[in-house]
Amino acid sequence: MTAIATGPSGKMKRRDVVRALLADRGKLLAIGGLGAPAWDITAAGDVPENMPLWGGMGGAAMMGLGLAMAQPDRPVCVLTGDGEMLMGIGSLATIGVKRPRNLSIIVLDNEHYGETGMQETATRHGVDLATMAKGAGIADTRLVTQPAEVAALRAAIHAGAGPLFAQVKIDESSEPLVLPPREASILQARMREAILGKAAHLQ
Amino acid sequence: MPDAATDWPDQIYALLKEHDIRQVALVPDAGHSRLIKRCLADNDMKVATLTTEEEGIAMLFGAWLGGEKGVLLMQSSGVGNCINMLSVPISHRTPCPMIVTMRGDYGEFNPFQVPMGNATQTVLEAMGTLVKRADAPEDVAPTVNATLRLAFNTYRPTATLIGQRVIGAKTFGK
């Protein structure tokens, strides 16, 4: 497992967390919420099994639900930001009812809207996303603050005992942009081909 | 003898089976209640009751990534909740069929249903959705069939609007 450094705040660096969670990923499918999480999963490797989002704010977790229900034998991991998760917070209830065992939702919580000028989000003021997920009926909810907890989280993502929700506190410093393709038809077609083979294009 | 005036929800269900729809996302509407019951009773359909309709646009995108076809059922007021999320199927070029029961249409009693009901077709079309209306019971099945075919054959959001003349208006005892 790669080392996870901490930033000026003493919290973990986001790219190190994401790289560790996506290491040796096997059949894992990853959805990256718009903004920094999309760049983070791309920095870890711009592969067809990634769906980096350029928009649809608030929809990442529900995209994960649809994908997890369609591909129940593959782990599906949604990596998104605190602002994006807050916009779609009701989807935790929808997911808590459907209980897909292969779905993990990981919120990279820097307590700010990073793409728009670092305005504070509600988590900066004490809103506890892990407790909200617990209240929505997601049994395995975690607050992750220490590098040592990340390896266990990675193992849980692959274990298929979900749904799983983790709020990972990360340093707020921004990282260099690592952009995925911007043409979204390519992003969906390459992921579908990786999952379904060439038949994806004849469905 | 089947009667289109009352059997149109069963005809929609039959179309969902014919098109191999495996995921059904919905926010309930009285007009869809019979169809919802049929879907819930079907073990080959994964039915998700949403907290807001835009969740369904996102869910259908995820379903398609994984090779499953889905449909979104909602009433016209819910269309307003979906608008920005429609950028997802538009930009990714993925199917997104919606079956919408109209409020704020013929004989509406509740003033709050009128603004969104009156704007439903306009705002969907402003967001690149192919919209077809069914205002008679016998038109529902062919229109829904067209909506499903256009979505899955041409990769875009599509919608059937089922008019209040088909469903009947809620009168609140007045």
UniProtKB/TrEMBL annotation, chain A:
Q: Which keywords accompany this UniProt record?
A: Decarboxylase, Lyase
Q: Which Pfam families does this chain map to?
A: TPP_enzyme_C
**In the UniProt record, does the keyword rRNA-binding occur?**
no
Quote the InterPro entries the UniProt record gives: THDP-binding, TPP_dependent_decarboxylase, TPP_enzyme_TPP-bd
* Superkingdom of the source species: Bacteria
Segments forming domain Thiamine pyrophosphate enzyme TPP-binding: 53-165
According to UniProt, the name of this protein is Thiamine pyrophosphate-dependent enzyme
User: What species does this protein belong to?
Assistant: Siccirubricoccus soli
Automatic annotation (TrEMBL), chain B:
Q: Which domain of life is it from?
A: Bacteria
Q: What UniProt keywords are attached to this protein's entry?
A: Decarboxylase, Lyase
Checking InterPro entries in the record gives: THDP-binding, TPP_dependent_decarboxylase
User: Cross-referenced SUPFAM superfamilies, in alphabetical order?
Assistant: Thiamin diphosphate-binding fold (THDP-binding)
Which PANTHER family does this UniProt record tie to the protein? SULFOPYRUVATE DECARBOXYLASE, SULFOPYRUVATE DECARBOXYLASE SUBUNIT ALPHA
Instruction: Tell me the protein's name.
Output: Phosphonopyruvate decarboxylase
